[in-house]
Amino acid sequence: MDGHASLLWYAVNIRSLETLLWITRLGSFSAAARHLRLTQPAITRRINELEQELGSALFRREKAQVVLTLSGRRCLQVAERMVADFAALKAAAAQDLGVSGTMRVGVSEVIALTWLDKLLERVGNRYPAISVELDVDLSARLVKKLAARRVDIALLPGPVVLPEAITQSLGSYPLSWMSHPNLMASDNTIEPSDLVDVPIIASPDDASVSSVMQNWFRNAGVRPRRISYCGNVSVVASLVRKGVGVSLLPPGLFKEGIEAKTMKVLSERPSISPLEYSVSYIPTSELGFLPEIALFARAISRDTEVWQ
Fold it and tell me: Which family does it belong to (predicted)?
């Protein structure tokens, strides 16, 4: 088999592996057929051919659903890697072919306010015909959107628990309690009990930073009494600057306020761990450039000041 025939054989089998992934994600042959714009017999034929090639059944029927066999579950992880690798291969081969299309990027506000501009510039230089749609939202909501294919790639805090997704670390970003200098005038180190009666402006419960805050109080057996919620980091910072309350924020975003003494970083005990961030996407040959976009994001986050 020559090189061209080998690549053709690999591409054909990748389509079968993609079919396996979409059946698993959507729960049925008919749903996968609709998504891939194929007939159900075509989907069935792909899986039958793949099962013959592998010498093992991949699915079994349970009532009205199809579920993976034990062999199918083992093959699924390898299939995800192979689809991702082939997508990266296509992206590399297409670098001079004018790749076009739309990429929907889900992004947390902290990344949007720090290095998203650098990522967009690099994407524009590399793929000038790609349009980018941005969706700035909280972490839990971005994970749901990624699972529902409403975004193609997500840059977000916290873990991404999606078995079909490729997830890579973007490092971490420090968090600290911040206030207006007149609200918390003392330079002493604060403990959870010191904030019981202080107005707190918190992120919504489905934000990763909210879990960090809740754990900090819970581990000390403390329950604050005055909490307001806001999902917009910029608005929260504005309220902190005006002395409305304290908030757990990334101080690296607010150097100007700290230098102007409209905001103050509080020393806390116990210390608060930096918030971990990830880039996550679900491999698909339709967007073969996603692995490279994830690589761009990882490189930029490493080079960004304060980002750890």
Answer: Belongs to the LysR transcriptional regulatory family.
**CA geometry: angle 240, 249, 141, nearest 5 deg:** 110
Question: Which pTM value belongs to this model?
Answer: 0.67
129-134 CB contacts, 8 Å cutoff, 24+ apart = 129/98, 129/99, 129/100, 129/101, 130/99, 130/100, 130/101, 130/102, 130/103, 130/289, 131/101, 131/102, 131/103, 132/102, 132/103, 132/104, 132/105, 133/102, 133/103, 133/104, 133/105, 134/105, 134/107
At residue 244, what is the residue type? V
Is domain 3-93 in CATH 1.10.10.10, yes or no? yes
Per-residue pLDDT reduced to its tens digit, 47-65 = 998 888 888 899 988 777 7
Per residue in 256-290, pLDDT tens? 889 999 999 998 999 998 888 999 998 877 788 88
Give the residue ranges of DSSP H helices in 105-179: 109-114, 116-126, 139-147
CATH code of the region 100-173+275-303 = 3.40.190.10
